[in-house]
Amino acid sequence: MFRTMSLLRALIGTARMVRHTPRLAAGLPPDDDVLLDVPDARLAPALVAAAQADPEPAAKLLATTRDAADWEDRDRYVSRLSTFAYHRDEWLGHWLSAAPRDPDALLVKAQLAVRRAWESPARAERLRELGPLIDAATEAAPRDPVPWRLALDHARGTHARHTDFEALWEQAVRRAPHHYGCHVAALKYLSAQWYGSHRECFDFAEQAAEDALPGSLVQALPVRAAFAQLLAGPGHGVADDRVDAAADRALALSAEYPAGDLWPAEVRNLLVHVLVGRARWHDALTEFGRIGARATSFPWTLLADDPLRGFLEARTTAVREVARRTRLRAGHPDQVPGWDKDDRAGGDGPDGHYA
After folding, report:
1. Which residue among 166, 185, 254, 337 is least enclosed by CB atoms within 10 Å?
2. Which alpha helices (H) appear in 88-157, and where do they start and end?
3. Contact present, 106 and 86 (Cβ < 8 Å)
């Protein structure tokens, strides 16, 4: 009887995938239209100029964010510009030669140096050597929380004690209590991979989300904790209901932004991986629709050699799983016994996770 039911479900599922997959896929951008890490309208000209070894647009952009206390965009732009400099740094060399004490140039230089040190086999030693460079970045722009985010990342890599990390955290939140990047840096420090545990990670993330401003990406911090737990694999993590609650909170935040919006793109990409990992196929497909063509390197670089391919494969999986759960003549999940109407892990997904 059990084998007969399994065969019946397999045959029905295949028929449904064949029927519904094309329709569901048609509601998403074609694979060839999906782009990775699309810059916004302010960053794009700075990157184009940097490719021509001209640092002026980047300098003006970062100066504008500093003058306007636009810390969230500033953090993103510094990260993207340092990534560009990682591959092509002639423009940054020109900038530093012309203005060696420019706070924005120093910040990009420090971000780049920290990235290179993290990739070194002698990471902790290399990072310790960068202390004066990070200090220079914090002193050059006293109001700016972004150098303190960098200091938090630096402290994690140099095995800073909890008390030392807390002192840096105090400096960061004093400048911007709700800064997303600083919260992410603290979350990493508290993760089971570093100096905390999954439970501490979730406790911090959930409290920060409760205290966050309306529309703030900090509201999605628990889904980063959920991602860290899924990435670690089965073990002594928090209960599944906390992981699902984190995803629900991030779904609510995502719904506040227009589809295809660049601002929440990375959070949406992170969220959709967690939803796929929990076999919440319908929610995942909805979120892929909100992402549109805006794939981001994170988190896919941690999951696949080709991040864009990893994104597209996860999207294809979600489409097929939703198709397999949709009746041949209806548009809602199947009611055959054994199929999970709630569409969460523990139902008919592949062991409740996407690999």
Report:
1. 337
2. 90-98, 103-118, 123-129, 131-140, 146-157
3. no
Q: Give the span between the Cα atoms of 331 and 316, in whole angstroms.
A: 18
157 burial class (0-12, 13-18, 19+ CB within 10 angstroms)?
middle
Question: What burial class does residue 265 get, using C-beta atoms within 10 Å of its C-beta: 0-12 exposed, 13-18 middle, 19+ buried?
Answer: buried
Q: Specify the pairing of strand 35-36 against strand 294-295.
A: parallel
Q: Are 185 and 153 in contact (CB under 8 A)?
A: yes
Q: Which residues of 87-108 are buried (b: 16+ CB within 10 A; e: fewer)?
A: eebebbebbbeeeeebbbbbbb
Kindly state the helix (H) or strand (E) to which residue 294 belongs, with its residue range: strand 294-295
pTM of the predicted model as reported, rounded to 2 decimal places: 0.87
Q: What is the largest CA-CA distance in the chain?
A: 78
Whole-number pLDDT of residue 343: 53
Structure tokens at 210: 């409760």
For residue 342, give both structure tokens: 């709630």
Q: How far is CA 262 from CA 64, 205, 275, 308, 351, in A?
A: 20, 23, 20, 16, 32
* Domain parsing of the chain, residue ranges: 21-38+219-355
Q: Which residue has the tokens 């001209």?
A: 54
Residue 48, CA atoms < 13 Å, CB-side half-sphere: 8
Residue 36's φ and ψ, nearest 5 degrees, are -100, 125
Residue 333's pLDDT is 45
DSSP 53-65: T--HHHHHHHHHH
Do residues 246 and 226 make contact, with C-beta atoms less than 8 angstroms apart?
yes
The residue ranges of the chain whose pLDDT is under 50 are 8, 11-12, 15, 18-20, 331-342, 345-355
